[in-house]
Amino acid sequence: MAQEYNRRLQVLLTEDQFAFLNDLARRNRRSVGELVRHAIEHTYRPSVSTGPLRALSTIGRKTYLSSGS
Predict the structure, then answer these.
(1) 59 CB contacts (<8 Å, ≥6 apart)?
(2) Would 31 be classed as within a structural domain?
(3) Is-above-0.70 flag for pTM?
(4) Do residues 22 and 32 lie in contact, with contact meaning Cβ atoms separated by under 8 Å?
C-alpha cells in the first residue's frame, strides 16, 4: 500500500541549498519532497534494527543518492 502524505511543510532555503536539492533530485529522478522525506527517515528517524549509534555513524555518508562529488 502506498504511503499517504497528508501534512504540508514550508521551509525557507538559500538559493544554493535549493539549487543543490533541485539538481540532486533531477539527477536521481526524484522530487525534492522525496529527497527531504528520505533524509528525515534515514537521518532523524533511524529504524529500530539499525540502532541509534549505527544510524548516527551513517550521517554524511552517501548511501542512497549520488551528489555527483
Answers:
(1) 43
(2) yes
(3) no
(4) yes
Cell numbers that stand for 19 in this block? 539549487
In a domain, 35, yes or no: yes
- Residue matched to cell numbers 526524484: 30
Region for residue 59 given its phi and psi (left: phi exceeds 0; alpha: psi -120 to 50; beta: otherwise): beta
Can you give the residue range of the structural domain that contains 49? Answer: 27-54
Q: How far apart are the first and last CA of the chain?
A: 35
**pLDDT (tens place) for every residue of the chain, 69 residues total:** 678 889 999 999 999 999 999 999 999 999 999 999 999 888 888 765 455 566 556 655 555 555 555
Please, where are the H alpha helices in the chain?
Answer: 15-27, 32-39, 52-57
